């Protein structure tokens, strides 16, 4: 059974060259234990790799998009072949010239499957710019970044991500950042029309229940004030195109060696998650990283998939996922199957550095 979204969107290109969900709250929520078997939406690979840092017995990554599997596979090769600083240069977290990045890629290349090797061989420009820049969404953010100096000068942009107390951040945001030009520019650039054509696929908004620009503007204000930008790799990348003083979990130096040591516990499948689940035994999975896949399907299909996930999940297995513009959480008629860990999810959501989501959902199989 193909996934609903497979009928609507083109999956020949990279949509996300980085994971835009906060692995810190994901790992806190899932509480992965040694011996656990985990199922993870592959996306660009960062959060799937982050799960390896907890030494589970097995991580099964799945994605319907072969381009996203290619992102994961190249990251795995980079963890095997490169040093930590070299990995950061290949991603684009650290500056580096194109020739150097291409030389790093060629060191990783023998580790790749034939299909993935061909995929990246045809994208030398993306490699030269840093593989973390290669997605449609990241190109959209780069366009935003190129236009930001029309709203604020470079000194103000730099000041926005420098160390301040929370009180100072609120004052700065109101007095120096949140002017009429910013609000107008933001609402146009992140309108559903522009975002659907340049950043995400228009079909991803089919079930949207919020005004996307208004929601994102409120969440951006939260990220610039309540959450410290100095500790936020996602905000730093949006503003500068690099990770200046903070890295996502999988790219931090203290996590590099343990992820590398556990790479043999990872497998990946390019298929619809529904098809993968058909081939898994009951009572098999302990932890689920489901990204925000339910955003892209009808409520009926969401509930159908949720039951399939429950079937292969063990008792007390945890499911973690995000809502952006579509409200998805355990339906009432499944309360005997799933327990909603609402207080824990809300606490973690308040810490979410990937700030644009509207909620974080954590549920446990009864």
Automatic annotation (TrEMBL):
It comes from the Bacteria. Pfam families: DUF3419. CDD domains: AdoMet_MTases. This is S-adenosylmethionine--diacylglycerol 3-amino-3-carboxypropyl transferase. It comes from Dulcicalothrix desertica PCC 7102.
């Amino acid at each position: 059974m193909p996934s609903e979204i497979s009928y609507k969107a083109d999956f020949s290109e990279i949509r996300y060259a980085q994971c835009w969900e906060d692995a810190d709250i994901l790992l806190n929520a899932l509480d992965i234990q040694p011996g656990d078997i985990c199922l993870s939406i592959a996306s660009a690979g960062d959060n799937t790799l982050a799960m390896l840092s907890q030494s589970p017995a097995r991580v099964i990554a799945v994605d319907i998009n072969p381009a996203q599997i290619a992102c994961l596979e190249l990251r795995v090769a980079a963890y095997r072949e490169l040093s930590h600083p070299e990995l950061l240069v290949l991603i684009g977290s650290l500056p580096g010239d194109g020739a150097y990045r291409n030389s790093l890629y060629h060191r990783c290349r023998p580790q790749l499957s034939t299909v993935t090797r061909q995929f990246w061989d045809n994208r030398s420009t993306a490699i030269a710019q840093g593989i973390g820049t290669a997605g449609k969404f990241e190109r959209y953010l780069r366009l935003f970044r190129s236009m930001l100096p029309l709203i604020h000068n470079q000194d103000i942009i730099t000041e926005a991500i420098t160390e301040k107390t929370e009180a100072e951040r609120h004052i700065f945001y109101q007095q120096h950042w949140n002017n009429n030009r910013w609000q107008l520019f933001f609402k146009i650039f992140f309108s559903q029309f522009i975002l659907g054509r340049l950043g995400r696929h228009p079909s991803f908004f089919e079930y949207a229940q919020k005004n996307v620009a208004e929601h994102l503007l409120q969440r951006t204000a939260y990220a610039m004030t309540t959450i410290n930008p100095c500790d936020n790799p996602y905000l730093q990348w949006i503003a500068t195109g690099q990770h200046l003083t903070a890295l996502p979990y999988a790219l931090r130096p203290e996590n590099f060696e343990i992820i590398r040591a556990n790479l043999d516990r990872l497998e990946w499948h390019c298929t619809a998650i529904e098809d993968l689940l058909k081939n898994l035994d009951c009572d098999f999975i302990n932890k689920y990283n489901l990204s925000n896949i339910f955003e892209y399907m009808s409520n009926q299909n969401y509930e159908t998939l949720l039951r399939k996930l429950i079937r292969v999940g063990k008792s007390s297995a945890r499911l973690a996922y995000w809502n952006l513009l579509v409200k998805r959480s355990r339906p009432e008629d499944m309360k005997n199957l799933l327990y909603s860990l609402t207080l824990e999810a809300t606490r973690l959501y308040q810490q979410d550095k990937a700030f644009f989501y509207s909620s974080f959902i954590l549920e446990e199989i009864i």
